[in-house]
Amino acid sequence: MKFFTTGTMAVILVLCMTVSMSMAADVNLSVAASMKDVVNVLTDNFTKKNPSVKFIKNYGASGALAKQIENGAPADIFISANMEWMDYLKNKKLMDNQSIGTFAYNELVFVGKPGLKVKSLRDLAKLERIAIGSPKSVPAGEYAMAALKKAGVDKGLDKKLVMARDVRECLMYAERGEVDGAFVYKTDALEQARTVAILFTVPQELYPRVTYPKGLTATGSKNESAASFFRFLNSTETKSVLVKKGFAVK
Amino acid sequence: MVSFTPADYSAIYLSMKVAVTATLLSLPVGFALAWLMTFRQFRGKVVLDVLINLPLTLPPVVVGYLLLLLLGQKGWIGQHLLQPLGIKLIFTWKAAVIATAVVGFPLLVRAIRIGLEGIDEGLIQASRTLGAGTFDTVMTVVLPLSFRGILAGSALMFARGLGEFGATIIVAGNMPGVTQTIPLAIYEYASSPSGDIMALALCLVSISLSVIILLFHEFLSRRLVKVD
Predict the structure, then answer these.
(1) Of chain B's two ends, which shows fewer C-beta atoms within 10 Å, N or C?
(2) Which pTM was predicted?
(3) Do the chains contact at A136 and B189, CB–CB below 8 Å?
(4) Which CATH homologous superfamily contains domain B6-227?
């Protein structure tokens, strides 16, 4: 009997330790889909120096991620593709406010089959199908919609827009040739586009600058590994990766 | 009070339109196949049975993806048959109809088969001995006697069509006012932090429609049992 209790205690103790150890080393990332490649490189670089840290990555539309975090999805670090969804979580007291800062900047472009005679937003009326991130949750779609409205061409495009789940799906629709063109970030077009090319860059005066805020969540600020990776996100090494992938850091 | 946007109204309308069209288009084929499976013996019957019922157990995403590979701009049928004819299916409401038809088809055939199996063979034989051909027998004896089964199957397929999501989002995409059905609209609202109320309102519409159709189906099934 006595042996049994000590044995059980020992097992429970070991279980507790392994659980707490794995908990401490896990870092949950919720990252805008357009940051996928950069963050994959950064986490790889970080685990080379800190092999015990394990990353659990969740890529998607920033709005969708914000909603998941609000509903209790595990997240230590949140990188959004606009301020709106970061502020949303801030207002719900789910972020560590002091940690929030700008991570990078990006630009909006329009991609399509090379040789297509589309040089500006006005020319889009000639096309049949255009992919755009759903403005309800995809920042790239929100920026694109803002630009279309400001240029005064949104009305004519009403029934031509295919709403994508995130900006990467947008690009995929164009790559497969199922749409004539798509609004994506410059970085997506540079890194991922194979059969399509950038037809024009959306003029910056038509939409607010694409800004990626990053921040530790309220739970993330208590996670040692998450905080350490978050410091790594501010390093010059990170900045050089961002620049290499086509993002602006200033 | 919740107020639906024009795109939401068109989602409700489009759901109906797609489900009705898919059901009507499937009816003749579904009836023919059900008749074949009930009254005829032939080689490969089991294979055909499995093929008909496959979409019932297959994830709708698989159906959608295979349809996309077939009908897309770079697909076999899409590139060699549809493009020369100038037909574009993907990301149109017609693609939603095709996806819905494939996914709902097994339900239709099953219900019609139940209706056909309930027919007294003697009546069919009597019609034949009185000189009616196969076609005549089907039109004047089999069809009227299996009418409730056909109606029940159509109701089920229609209901399934209203809820089709997995295959539809792949082949028809999510285009408000063009291909966005109720489930797709709910999906879009559900992934937006500010969309909960609208998502719930559309859920309510969806639930009401389903309850009405299921009540209708239940009513038909009871009549079916009584007749037997």
Answers:
(1) N
(2) 0.81
(3) yes
(4) MetI-like (1.10.3720.10)
Predicted local distance difference test score (pLDDT) of residue A22: 46
Residue A158 touches partner B, C-beta closer than 8 Å: yes
Q: Let me know: does A125 contact A187? Beta carbons within 8 Å.
A: no
Higher pLDDT, residue A22 or A64: A64
Structure token digits, residue A185: 């970030």
Tokens 């099953």 map to which residue?
A: B110
- CATH tag, A2-105+211-244: 3.40.190.10
Does B191 contact A177 at a Cβ distance shorter than 8 Å? no
Q: Among 3.30.70.2330, 3.40.390.10, 3.20.20.140, 3.40.190.10, what is the CATH number of A108-201? A: 3.40.190.10
Asked if residues B151 and B220 have their Cβ atoms less than 8 Å apart, the reply is yes
- What residues of chain B, 53 to 92, have a C-beta less than 8 Å from chain A? 72-74, 88, 90-91
Of the candidates A161, A169, A141, the residue with the CA atom closest to the CA atom of residue A60: A169
Burial of A232 (0-12, 13-18, 19+ CB in 10 A): middle
- DSSP secondary structure string, B173-224? ---TTTT--HHHHHHHHHTSTT-HHHHHHHHHHHHHHHHHHHHHHHHHHHHH
Phi, psi of B88 (to 5 degrees): -115, 120
Across B95-109, average pLDDT: 96
